[in-house]
Design goal:
137 residues, elongated, 4-stranded antiparallel sheet, Double Stranded RNA Binding Domain, single chain, alpha+beta, 2 domains
Length: 137
């Protein structure tokens, strides 16, 4: 299981929250309402950013091994450990909504018989695509 550790910089905002950025992950930003929330938000932001880079085929930046020096007072540096492979599995196996259209009469019959549309569509797609077991990415 891969793990990567990046430094997150927490910048206090005027309203009491924290802006979050990563010197080693350009374009990766987040925000937290409190210091307690900042660690979770930083981990989510870095995980999603690395996932996006990998999906696009872009290189994943190496993490610095030295704590960045900051010129601005009140900033906090936080080491954030992420697990890209675990994040990928969770992200790609999350449930998403998909709209479909069917004839009204069929919908009425299905509702009378308490059909679970999500289960039925998932099973039908797996059968149609000849997938024997759910994919674990």
């Amino acid at each position: 299981m891969r793990s990567l550790t990046y430094f997150a910089v927490l910048e206090p905002s005027e309203n009491g929250g924290y802006g979050i950025f990563f010197p080693d992950l350009p374009g990766c930003y987040s925000y937290a309402e409190s210091l307690e929330e900042a660690s979770a938000m930083a981990e989510e932001a870095a995980s999603l950013h690395v996932y996006g880079l990998e999906e696009d085929g872009d290189p994943v930046p190496s993490a610095s091994t030295v704590v960045p020096k900051l010129d601005i007072e009140d900033m906090i540096v936080l080491a954030v450990k992420i697990h890209p492979d675990i994040y990928r599995i969770k992200h790609e196996n999350r449930r998403v909504k998909t709209n479909t259209t069917i004839p009204m009469w069929l919908k009425k019959v299905a509702e009378e018989r308490n059909v679970n549309y999500s289960q039925l569509l998932e099973a039908a797609l797996m059968d149609y695509l000849e997938i024997k077991t759910p994919a674990v990415v």
